[in-house]
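Changelog note: in this version the structure field was regenerated for every chain. One regenerated record is shown below for reference.
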Amino acid sequence: MKPFAYVKAANEQQALAALGRERGKVLPLAGGMDLVSLLKDRIATPDRLVNVKGLDGTITATPDGGLRIGSAVRLVDLQAHPTVTAQYQALMEAAAEVGTPQIRNLGTVGGNLMQRPRCWYYRNEEFPCLKKGGARCYSVDGENQFHAIFGGGPCHIVHPSSLAVPLVAFGAKVRIVGPRGEREVLAEEFFELPERNLYGETALRPDELLTHVIVPPARAMKSATYEVRFRSSHDWPIAFASVALQLQGSTVTDARVVLGAVAPIPWRSPEAEAALKGQPLNEATATKAAEAALAGATPMTQNAYKVQVAKTAVKRALLHAAGVSA
């Protein structure tokens, strides 16, 4: 591990003052679940770490009835919050599935959204992969059973955040602050494909901080997250889906369907949404929507199985949200 300086920021202003403009030279530290392993493996080699646990760690109601979630909120507190449990089931279920109880007691909302890819070529210092400035993505001709089936490259990582997927489904925004002021960005636009941002995964600049997530009012929305893993204990999902539905009786009037662990970003499916709108939500409709969601998938040499896994995740998330047995 490379030696580094350490700054403990008491608040947002102090944290911003300690950041720098050069990518990777100054990094924020929250729960440390991801960053510490990156430091140990020398994938991250910052000159300075800035402790950002002093950022907002509360969940409050917005004037329009939505939620404002501080980036320092712990996952265990997000999972247990009464409004999240009652109105944002997909978010609660995603938070409850992250890691182990120990990880959820330390991990934060901001840390979960900002964690780096879990690709074993990226995480291994012996491989100068494309994302680290190398000449190629080793997964193309290598071990790619857990890599992307959407997104088209040139880097075939899958997005690691569990919370990002339901937040995109809810149409959430993220609040960003920096030396140029503050801005709010749709979660759907915050996460960026490698073809646009090869060395990062988000629209966040090195001298900016993600401070809050703003979730719109639920307005009787039905939602759910369904994950598929190899192991039910501490593991990352093979594929999962979050859905958010507006129903009139049993008929879908509006729908958002987002897939996780299948692309370098949370992968929204307009095709699945179109297949649902105006239709009664039952097993046949859910199956049709799941087929539509995966129609454009392009598997690699070892991950074609993900197509069927993701179809199952979409179908079961839809039925779970509507309270229909699969």
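Spot check on this record: Residues 87 and 219 are 8 Å apart (CA to CA). The domain at 222-321 is CATH 3.30.390.50 (Enolase-like; domain 1).
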